[in-house]
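Work through this:
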Amino acid sequence: MTTINETNQSNGRAWIMLLLASVFEIGYALSVGGSQAFTVLSWSISAGVFFLLTLYALSVALKTIDVGIGYAVWAGIGSVGAAAFGCVLLDQPITLTQAFWLAVIIGGVVWLKLADSAKLQAGKNRVPA
């Protein structure tokens, strides 16, 4: 029988792995951009390594987190991170409208995490009287 504390620790580790997978996804996206259609060897190797790391970390996280929620968070953080770092590192422009919608994505990611919190999970599992 698992205790609530063990469940919370497992859930916390899963979210850390999901954040790590998101960071690797950002690295993958930037590496693919730098590889120039996989014609630059160093960037291509980097893309391959980040690809494997993101898949591994995502698969570990999805053992605990529902796949729909986990994938949405992973994709959201990855896309916003790639856009933000692409702007800074690769001189890719971002308009005010694009920045607004990227902020909306981050807001959605935060709400998805809040919806998965232990407090809401406890209320969801409660049997009505």
In short: The longest helix spans residues 4-34. The mean pLDDT is 87. The radius of gyration is 17 Å. The chain is about 80% helix and 0% strand.
